[in-house]
Structure prediction request, 445 residues.
Amino acid sequence: MSQDKLTKIVSLCKRRGFVFGGSEIYGGLSSVWDYGPLGARLKKRIKDVWWQTYVEDREDIVGLDSSIIMQEGVFRASGHLQGFADWLVDCPKCKKRFRVDKLEKKDIDLYSCLDCKSDIDIEKYKPRKFNLMLKTNMSATEEDPYYAYLRPETAQGIFVNFSNVMNVTHKPLPLGIAQIGKAFRNEVTTGSFIFRMKEFEQMEIEYFVNPKEAEKAYEYWVQERLNFYIEKIGLKKENLRLREHDKDELAHYAKGCTDVEFNFPFGWSELEGIANRGDYDLSEHARVSKKDLSFFDNIKKEKYIPYVIEPSAGVDRTFFAIISDAYHEEEVKGKIRTVLRLKPNFAPYCVAILPLLKNRPEIVELAKKVFYDMKSQWPAVYNDTGAIGKLYRRQDEIGTPFCVTIDVDSLTDHKVTVRNRDSMAQERVDISKLKDYIAEKIKSY
Ligand code: ATP
Prediction:
């Protein structure tokens, strides 16, 4: 059933223009995806809500937009060049490549292939270590290369700008630096859609604190980020949970880490990680770059390297979670109706205007007028390219909460029919009261 749901979501995303395969007309590019017209809208909303919540609405966090390509030295200091690697093994039967830590363990050294289910004896088929960093040549010639790296997390752009930001903001600690941007990892993946991509987008905050306050800040951020998914993104509580990492699971730099997990179609998996990274990053960058990255607290007359708490979220995984949570199928008059029950603020369009007769100029004129009126307040779409039943189904599939039809009677009674996506109930509403009507209905989501 779950695999079935995943297949249906992938197909809907493609059919309706949420997500396309990368470089598709050339046969595609493994684990690279493009967002279509509707996907681009939804993705932007996610980023806007996050940015508004943390950068605009707070005084203890500032924004940053640092570059994707970074110098080798950065990743020598961060440990990514040496340590950012996965152990991979090829299945002897189906030849597919897997991460050893994701395989099903059957016995000591014996695993089961995730695809063809045959045994993989890792004593015999030795796993190899693959670095996950994507490298690029910034030199004009191949003979004399100058290698730089595409960042595997936006965080490093924040650490290398720590003193720049402190110098210009003159803010006390705790201070967060927030950034939304692309990150790149040469991941090995099998059919996990946008859950695991080679190019993806992160929303990260590095929250710098006095080491004495780090534990408290870490606990605060774990709860804050869980609440964000419930209250601001509107994911169902029962599809979210926290999972604290065991000591032996922690990254080499981390003092503590908790994942916010979501119940994806293929099971519970990480949506976001919140880590207490200690002073590892700033200390290492200070050591390798030979720059002083400590902070002087003017009031307490204390000098120290701050600890950092990092809530690191994925835009693409949030997108996936929203679609997955909203996806519904139900039987209506013997047929399956697919509907995305998106919250109005995440639906690509809040209102669809559908004129019933496109050959009647007076109806078209009135429909256009209503359309522009709606569009001035909410994202709206005008569609007259099919029979009404088909148009409703299309809007249901993309999650448009309200469809407004304009018919012959509208010309005389100045009313339109509003159809509710979830209940399919229809109501006649005065055109002059349409905005108030929709605004009121939105409040109930
Ligand atoms: P996983 O264990 O699933 O590989 P991770 O622990 O390596 O994830 P982090 O390094 O903690 O991930 O990255 C923070 C967040 O960035 C993740 O919670 C996720 O939302 C997002 N993310 C990481 N890698 C990818 C990817 N390959 N594709 C899409 N999103 C990703």
Summary: The CA atoms of residues 201 and 315 lie 5 Å apart. Residues 349-443 form a domain with the Rossmann fold fold (CATH 3.40.50.800).
